[in-house]
Cytochrome c-type protein
Amino acid sequence: MRRWLSRYWQILTRPSMHFSLGFLTLGGFLCGVLFWGGFNTALEATNTEEFCISCHEMERNPFQELQGTVHYTNRSGVRAECADCHVPHDWTHKMARKMEASKEVWGWLFGSIDTEEKFEAKRRELAEREWARLEANDSRECRNCHEFESMDFTAQNSRASRAHSTSLASGEATCIDCHKGIAHELPDMGPDFEASQAHSGLASLEAYVAHLPNEE
Ligand code: HEC
Ligand code: HEC
Ligand code: HEC
Ligand code: HEC
């Protein structure tokens, strides 16, 4: 074994006699491109809705719920897919989220949410992870499509323009503070919902609106 290894090592380190350095460099470069391309294609494949749904197919599933919302059908025909809201666009954050998501594979192997009962029981915990993510990144995934600078307050209903021109504009609140449950049904939050929101001082959209200065 040792002999075999040392011979192998010799072959690897011996200068190549058959190929010019230029050929090897070019070859290495091409292999790199092919590998990288393949890697990114594979990465893209894990961003498709089909991929997400292949696991998230439980009885009351997030996809079914999404279909009832404005993010699935609307007058403009612009549609948000799973990855638009759940996977960062830029490379570094995307990789970080993909690494983190590898634990979803464990969850899947061990069936952490493979029945409706288990999903419902765990739903709040999962939703809270997602909220924490969006709160920490100032709702970055929402802002990929909804740019604050491009919001025309005069075209919004009065509740919306009041909230957006005050708490959102000042940075006191971010999209997800007020817009929970826009894509899926909210988990059963129970009476301690308000308490769980205490850190941000926000209870819910309605509570938020109640605190806004009156119109006029
Ligand atoms: C291999 C199966 C599998 C695939 C593919 C998959 N998920 Fe998951 N996902 C799970 C499981 C299982 C959980 C629950 C993890 C747990 O129990 O902690 C989960 C949890 C989640 C959560 C809850 C938040 C969190 O941090 O746990 C979100 C959001 C989510 N997945 C979105 C997606 C999206 C978007 C895609 C496609 C880009 C996707 N998933 C692809 C199995 C999968
Ligand atoms: C892929 C682009 C995209 C992403 C990502 C996205 N949205 Fe939207 N959103 C839309 C479109 C398109 C509409 C519908 C516009 C229309 O009315 O024609 C919409 C509508 C809305 C509405 C109006 C709801 C209603 O009932 O009229 C709210 C609120 C909203 N989005 C919040 C969010 C939040 C919060 C996030 C992040 C969690 C988010 N959006 C992520 C594209 C997106
Ligand atoms: C301070 C709370 C608050 C924050 C923060 C907030 N919104 Fe809103 N938003 C509202 C309220 C209130 C409405 C009106 C809802 C209603 O009338 O039921 C609204 C409505 C909307 C609408 C629909 C507008 C219309 O006229 O129909 C969109 C789109 C929207 N918000 C997107 C966003 C996005 C994207 C962000 C983050 C960049 C955000 N909101 C942050 C409170 C907020
Ligand atoms: C418009 C943005 C948006 C889209 C599109 C979207 N989600 Fe979500 N998703 C959210 C938000 C925000 C949460 C956090 C809980 C909430 O507010 O409903 C969430 C929560 C979840 C959860 C945690 C359990 C729960 O129900 O709260 C899962 C799993 C999930 N999404 C999977 C998916 C899958 C799969 C798709 C595609 C079929 C998808 N999501 C499409 C915004 C989105």
Summary: Residues 21-45 form the longest helix (25 residues). Residues 198-203 have pLDDT under 50 and may be disordered.
